[in-house]
Automatic annotation (TrEMBL):
Alphabetized PANTHER family for the sequence: SEPTUM SITE-DETERMINING PROTEIN MIND HOMOLOG, CHLOROPLASTIC (PTHR43384:SF6), SEPTUM SITE-DETERMINING PROTEIN MIND HOMOLOG, CHLOROPLASTIC-RELATED (PTHR43384)
Annotated organism of origin: Stakelama saccharophila
Source organism phylogeny: Bacteria, Pseudomonadati, Pseudomonadota, Alphaproteobacteria, Sphingomonadales
Name of the featured protein: P-loop NTPase
Origin: domain of life: Bacteria
Entry keyword ATP-binding: yes
Basic residues compositional bias, start-end: 419-428
Membrane-spanning residues: none
Key words, A-Z: ATP-binding, Nucleotide-binding
Region (Disordered) location: 389-428
InterPro entries: CheY-like_superfamily (IPR011006), P-loop_NTPase (IPR027417), ParA/MinD_ATPase (IPR050625)
Length: 428
């Protein structure tokens, strides 16, 4: 059940009001509130009952902190509070009952967080940061876009080829340069770097979605995504590595559906294992950007992934990007030989630029933003334009099939032809 406070946006209201039951809670909360820039006198006594009485005759704040310690039926009382709260209020509750079921039920009712007494300063700070991030979350557009939705997935043929770098750069280019509202979905729930590349905290939205797929809707997307700019938001995670995420893929599929309704463009940073475990995720992707490097191992995996798209998602337009490409003399395989082995042309070549990559990491910016005028970024800008054009085209052949009429032979036969030429790479 969704409480009314989660249905709208904030207006010109008090940024923060608290209603607590005892002096100890007030004394613990007041200095943390002041740290956030809020007035200490906004911490009131009276708990939930006083909150309901006060807010029934006055505007509710952007962030409401309420003490449930004196409540005999917290869930029922929270619903009473919801009736007097205006849309857009983020509610944080505290109490003495340490019960997982109550915690889950309270979150399901629409509150942002439930903190156990005695209050821990660090947990309060974290909860307030998340609450403010929610207030800044992207609002779903009610306007009909002037152009078709652009949906793309970025897949690396191997780890370390820079697929996440390409994904964040494309998302930034589509939003900042293309002027389109863009949602970035990082599906590497344990080791994703999308939020890190944007200098953001990933939040808990993606892990919540995986654990509770039934809660995913437009409102969930609005609240869970973390805003990077007015037109760019990200949904990612840093799940504990001792906690495997068990999912049948329904959460990921539903997230794609809701993102299409919330944004004009969606960029999915999709680990290659996802197409093995959840092949249906590629069914609604208009464009797949396959990122590779010019090596023997990457050639093998590029052949396999292109073949997979041809068989499993023939409607998807595939664009092949060679990333982090060193000067010709340093290549393991030349571009010409690489293309010959995979029987598919490389659409874009992004040069390796260690200095720019380091600068982008230090600034916490996507590569495309950190090097706006660099020659290294030019192929990424052209790629973004290509992606939009490809998504707008109806029908037409998918590029996953590669060149027609190419030579046959097994995968190993095609790879084997590269080995004698590896020491003498042609100019890329």
């Amino acid at each position: 059940m969704n409480a009314p406070w989660s249905a709208g946006r904030t207006g010109q209201r008090e940024p923060f009001i608290a209603f607590v039951c005892d002096d100890n809670t007030a004394e613990a909360l007041r200095p943390i509130a002041i740290e956030q820039g809020w007035a200490g006198e906004k911490v009131n006594k009276g708990g939930l009952r006083n909150a309901v009485q006060t807010l029934s005759v006055s505007a509710s704040p952007n962030i409401l902190f309420v003490d449930l310690s004196e409540s005999g039926d917290p869930l029922n009382d929270i619903n009473a509070l919801a009736e007097v709260c205006e849309p857009g209020t983020v509610v944080i509750a505290t109490g003495q009952v340490n019960d997982v079921r109550l915690y889950r039920d309270l979150l399901a009712s629409g509150i942002q967080d439930y903190l156990l007494k005695p209050l821990n300063p660090d947990m309060m700070r974290e909860s307030f940061v998340q609450a403010q991030a929610m207030l800044n979350a992207p609002k779903l557009s009610e306007d009909v876009p002037d152009h078709p939705h652009c949906s793309l997935a970025v897949i690396g043929t191997r780890g370390g080829v820079g697929a996440s770098t390409v994904a964040t750069s494309l998302a930034w280019l589509l939003s900042a340069k293309g002027g389109r509202t863009t949602g970035l979905l990082d599906l590497d729930v344990h080791f994703g770097t999308g939020a890190l590349s944007l200098d953001l905290e990933p939040g808990r939205g993606l892990t919540d979605a995986i654990e509770n797929p039934g809660r995913i809707d437009g409102l969930f997307i609005e609240r869970a995504m973390v805003r990077a700019s007015d037109k760019l938001a990200i949904l990612s995670a840093e799940a504990p590595i001792n906690s495997p995420m068990m999912s049948d893929g329904s959460a990921f599929f539903q997230l794609q559906e809701e993102l299409r309704g919330a944004f004009e463009c969606t960029v999915i940073d999709m680990p290659r294992a996802m197409i093995v475990q959840h092949p249906h995720l590629a069914s609604d992707v208009q464009v797949a950007v396959v990122v590779t490097e010019l090596t023997l191992a990457a050639a093998r995996d590029t052949i396999r992934i292109l073949s997979w798209f041809k068989s499993n998602a023939p409607q998807t337009r595939v664009i092949l990007v060679a990333n982090r490409v060193h000067p010709a003399a340093q290549l393991e395989i030349s571009r010409k030989d690489f293309e010959g082995s995979i029987e598919h042309k490389v659409d874009y070549v992004v040069p390796f630029d260690q200095k720019l990559a380091a600068q982008a990491a230090k600034l916490g910016k996507p590569l495309a933003e950190a090097g706006k005028n660099a020659k290294t970024v030019a192929p990424l800008a052209h790629l973004a334009e290509h992606v939009v054009q490809a998504s707008e085209e109806s029908g037409g052949e998918t590029a996953a099939g590669g060149k027609k009429g190419g030579k046959g032979g097994s995968l190993l036969d095609r790879l084997g032809s590269l080995r004698p030429k590896k020491a003498q790479p042609a100019k890329a």
